[in-house]
Amino acid sequence: MAKILILNIDNASAWGVSRQLWTLDEGDIVISPMPIDARHLEYIGQTLGFDASTVSVLPGNQRLTDEHDEYLSPGFAALAGELEKLLDRSPSWDIVPCQYTVGVAELAVQLGFPLDGALRFAAQRGPELLNRKSHFRQLAVGAGVPIAEGSVVVSAAALAKALERHMPKTGTVIVKRDNSMAGRGNITVTRASATPMPGSRETWQTNGDFQATAAALWDGLTDDRSRTLVVEAYHEATHCLWFEFLIDEWGRPALRHSGTFRRRQDTDPTKPALVWVGLDLPAELPALSAANAMLLTTQLVNLCAQVGYRGYVNVDAILTPDEGILINEINARWGGGLVVDVVGRRLIGKYYADEHVVSSSSDIPPISLTGALKILHTRELHYSPESQEGVVVISSDTKVMECAVIAENRRRSREIEAEFRKAVTEALQ
Predict the structure, then answer these.
(1) For a FRET experiment, which of 73, 82, 119, 286 has its CA 20 to 30 Å from that of 243?
(2) Where in the numbering of this chain does the ATP-grasp domain appear (predicted)?
């Protein structure tokens, strides 16, 4: 079945949009919030073995959501009209968004598609039940899964009280904006020195004046759209991981993939956050912790299915030295690891993780796609179907280059990555 791929991702960028194109197949339609590099699309087709010239690209607004009622605009009607002109080339179509929203459901209505399963749930803003950090704590407690000690607060006074209450647990708390992604709305507050911490955009040191700290946090993290914050005791983690599931139309969750996050200290000690490096698939955990993490995340995902959600859902968690597995949050949308998993599945096979690892890296100095491919082929580092190892360029622009390294184990993956990183650095000197 051909698909209409809707790239309604948050904080859309050239890098964030182009990496999703690895999910395309021959004859698909893609709705993108920005122009797509034809050379990059051609490279994806060559690597995956399909004719990329058969893919149609239509411009669309960034979100196709309910946030600003985009689906009531003339541009939305024009988009639906352009889509209708392309639908005759396939007998059946599947609407595949990065996240199910009211706008996606409205587009389906405009095209005459039935509102079944995921679309029907999205039409009623159902995914909002799962994509807010305050809702996560409520659902997690109801599902009986372990979460960090914490509170949901709706005022600066309540925030001050929560800081005072939860600080003694570990000496550090994390304050989260209700509806931000990838740690961009998170600030840690600690009694120790203010060093960068995983999952946080910056760290503040407190002198114990919780009223003043709360007032500053409230002003910085809330606005007219969101007056809710989450406060949690912050635990140091031996592993930061996720599990991503796909809930099918009958409400049956299946594990899609797992992985761990890669971060490092910045070379500039004054930077407030750790540097994002990439992702490692699959997650590597001690056996008992891995089994427990699977059990707990499945328990929570089953609850998502029971309330009616259909589609991809990812659950973030940590493994701590003292508490074991703690579930951090849940997101009813594509996770960042989905594209990396797609690359592994399409180049190796559905069960690639049984005998291979895939590691992504987005902190290699950016270079053009042409330049990157020249280096990879000259050094014989590009992915080879014969050896089933090597590098694939997931996305490349002037600001970020993301690569995926496929290898038989993590040690070999790091060796290949280091050789490519060194070659790129030398080429840019």
Answers:
(1) 119
(2) 137-361
